[in-house]
Design goal:
Shape: globular
Radius of gyration: 25 Å
Strand content: 15-25%
Order of helices and strands: EHEEHHHEHEHEEHEE
Number of helices: 7
Number of domains: 2
Number of strands: 9
Structural class: alpha+beta
Strand order of the largest sheet: 2-3-1-4-9
């Protein structure tokens, strides 16, 4: 039985020899081979000095990626996690070889021709974004409050059913001690955040403040800062070293630098302006 395919787009990038070679060793969603799609032949050629842009593309089965199927799949967390992980892995792999502009998860077109038309129509905006991202990489900085371990931060003992004056006062003192200790740690976190911002001002060009992570993503720790920074590649090592050195001054916190990442946090253009394309994103 023949399967109808759609064209899935992972990112916009610039073709390089190392990227072309790397793509031959990678597989996309459902194990599909990857390819680079240039703009449609009828598109106006790039101006002198303007970078050539291509889509990173692969085939996906139509029955899994049409609009109706995607609405159902986005309710399936296992399916969604698998697709998102593959999408992310491909974008990260491209970023190792060329400037990359990640596109929204599950951006699909009817065929390669429609995708190439979309690239041609979107080239001015894509080029502007690529110029802002060129020779830059995203890094994250997270600050965590350590999980309570010492007696001062441990949960207070349960109050007896019929407390006497002595145990009641001890309970209140324990609660006050716990409260003051947590306040001190939060003040330390505020100081650490200000220190990170001061360092970033010397080494980065843009910042995005994400909401702190919660639940299973952080475990017993409390995430109080979750920032992303766009850093010139020649500043990345100095930035990381400066953050690591500053973290030594905050013993009650864990300061984590993550990356390098493709610049997801700094992509403001998620779709190509093509009326024949459909773009789906998880709710």
């Amino acid at each position: 039985m023949n399967t109808t395919n759609l064209t899935y787009i992972y990112a916009v990038t610039q073709p390089t020899l190392s990227l072309t070679t790397a793509l031959t060793t990678l597989r996309g969603i459902a194990g599909a081979s990857l390819r680079l799609l240039p703009p449609a032949p009828e598109a106006i050629p790039p101006a002198i000095g303007e970078a050539q842009l291509v889509f990173v593309a692969a085939d996906v089965p139509e029955h899994d990626f049409n609009e109706t199927a995607l609405k159902t799949h986005f309710e399936d967390l296992d399916w969604l996690e698998d697709v998102a992980r593959t999408h992310h892995d491909i974008v990260q792999a491209v970023a190792a070889h060329a400037t990359v502009l990640p596109l929204r998860l599950a951006t699909v077109y009817q065929d390669d021709h429609s995708a190439r038309q979309a690239l041609a129509l979107g080239r001015p905006a894509f080029s502007e974004s690529m110029d802002q991202l060129r020779d830059h990489t995203e890094y994250g900085v997270k600050i965590y409050l350590a999980a309570p371990t010492g007696p001062d931060l441990a949960p207070p003992p349960a109050e007896p059913r019929a407390p006497t004056a002595g145990p009641g006062k001890a309970y209140l003192r324990a609660r006050r001690t716990q409260h003051h200790a947590r306040e001190a740690v939060h003040q330390q976190a505020q100081h650490a955040a200000a220190t990170v911002e001061a360092i970033a001002a010397r080494h980065t060009t843009r910042r995005v403040r994400h909401a702190p992570q919660r639940g299973a993503l952080t475990g017993p720790e409390e995430n109080v800062l979750n920032d992303a920074y766009l850093i010139p590649n020649d500043q990345a090592e100095d930035f990381q070293s400066a953050i690591d050195d500053a973290a030594q001054g905050f013993p009650d916190l864990r300061v984590e630098v993550t990356g390098p990442w493709a610049p997801y946090s700094f992509v403001t253009l998620a779709d190509a302006p093509d009326p024949n394309a459909h773009h789906e994103s998880p709710p």
